[in-house]
Amino acid sequence: MKTILIENAYIAPVAGAEIPSGFIHVEGDRIVALGAGPAPAIPGATRIDGTGCLATPGLVNTHHHLYQWASQGLAQDATLFEWLVALYQVWAAMDAEVVKGAAGAGLGFLALSGCTTSSDHHYVFPKGRGDLFAAEIEAAGELGIRFHPVRGSMDRGKSRGGLPPDVVVEKHEEILAESEKAVDTYHDASFSSKLRVAIGPCSPFSVSAELMVEAAELARAKGVRLHTHLAETLDEEEHLLEQVGMRPVDYMEKLGWLGPDVWFAHAIHLSDADIDAFAQTGTGSAHCPSSNGRLGAGIARVSEMLKRGAIVGLGVDGNASSELTTLSGEMRQAMLFQRARYGPTALTARQALEMATLGGAKNLGRADELGTLEPGKLADIALWRTDGAFASAITDPVAGLVFATRQPPLARLLVGGETIVEDDELRTVAQDALGRAGAEAHRRLLRLAEEQGFTAAKEVHE
Ligand SMILES: [Zn+2]
User: Fold this and answer.
1) CA of 388 to the centre of ligand 1 (A)
2) For the chain, which has fewer Cβ within 10 Å, the N-terminal or C-terminal residue?
């Protein structure tokens, strides 16, 4: 078994006290010890010098749509509903090649921002375009990041009162069969799993009530988690009041969608009672501040949610609504949003770090494996270089990481003890080729969309 010793690092374990200069001892894929002072002498160990570095748990991304790497920069000034209506038609043209290129670039970009575990919510499955779900799983496998793909879906197109055009929705029975197949084919429930599947009908305005109920039954029968978008905009609330006479959280409660196996994306427009319902049921939320800002959706009541005991993690959201957003940067964005609205004590740098790590692990149901640096947990570790010429003018490295607009260099990123990033460079895949494949996925998607009669770039810029 491989032994790794990270030494002389400032350690912010998230659980327990910070260690100004200490070591982390890794055996195989687990942390076996950490503490102050010099590392123990272990013959044959790989030693990583953490002098001038901050060690944190690897960051956990709990909301994404990786395919959107291929549709960045479009519909730049639109509300959520306008943006969706413009982009559904572009997404209808995607194929497995687009998804593979987009997912590879998106996940590589995330790893470079300290992310060791990411979920992805894929909910557009146009017919005859290859196995899109398999394509993103392949990309994650090549990179070596822990991956939680959500088999998403939409069954309520325009003809049934939904927002998306009928061409991008699937049939109810097909969705349930495909979701079950995705779980049976890929889900690995074991401790240290690198691949877990969740089930996630897309949103209340694109999915029928029956599908929400049956998806929850299926997920619970299979022992996997549930994910969807909720309370992202006031347009959504109005839509639901009009169509079902209920606000979003009440509707979810009625459908059996509150519980410790559920995490929602966004959860912005919540009442005190909604927040309490989340806290009491153990329902999690993925806060995606950059995307929420980009779409003018609003600011989630994160500090109040944390105060009331609700679970909150972070997410970068799809790149079509957050472009080149780093997960490390979302800590800062989350903190600044709360402070701008509620004052300077609303969210501390350490709370932001906790959301990005332990909060994310809780969203994914993996708080016993991930999210903190503790003996027995997986060796998912980010080592940030905080002694650079400019960075070293701040003595608190956690503040240096969270307050800065510019991410400190990532000296090392370990996933289960394996090096994924070293000195800001991906080590498991060819970084430049990965980036080029992402750009090619963008060009290919626009070309395919044009072949289907949609002049994508032109129309969504107007
Ligand atoms: Zn989303």
Assistant:
1) 35
2) C
Ligand 1 center to 219 CA (angstroms): 20
**Cβ proximity of 215 and 226 under 8 Å:** yes
**96-112 and 132-143 are packed helices; what angle lies between their axes, rounded to 10 degrees?**
30
3-state secondary structure (DSSP) of residue 202: coil
Going from the Cα of 28 to the center of ligand 1, the distance in angstroms, rounded, reads 35
Name the 3-class secondary structure at 339: helix
Cα 203 from Cα 78, distance rounded (Å): 18
Closest residue by Cα to residue 79 from 201, 205, 168: 205
Question: Measured in angstroms, how far is the CA atom of residue 254 from the centroid of ligand 1?
Answer: 22
Q: Which of 155, 190, 150, 188 is nearest to 170 (CA)?
A: 155
pLDDT in tens, 155-205: 999 999 889 999 899 999 999 999 999 999 999 999 999 999 999 999 988
Token representation of residue 61: 């991304």
- C-alpha 318 to ligand 1 mean position (Å): 6
Quote the ligand 1 centre to 266 CA distance (angstroms).
8
Question: Which residues have CB atoms below 5 A from the ion given as ligand 1?
Answer: 265, 317
Render pLDDT for 232-260 as a digit per residue (tens, 0 to 9): 999 999 999 999 999 999 999 999 999 99
What is the tally of helices (H) and strands (E) in the chain?
16, 17
CB 363 within 8 A of CB 284: yes
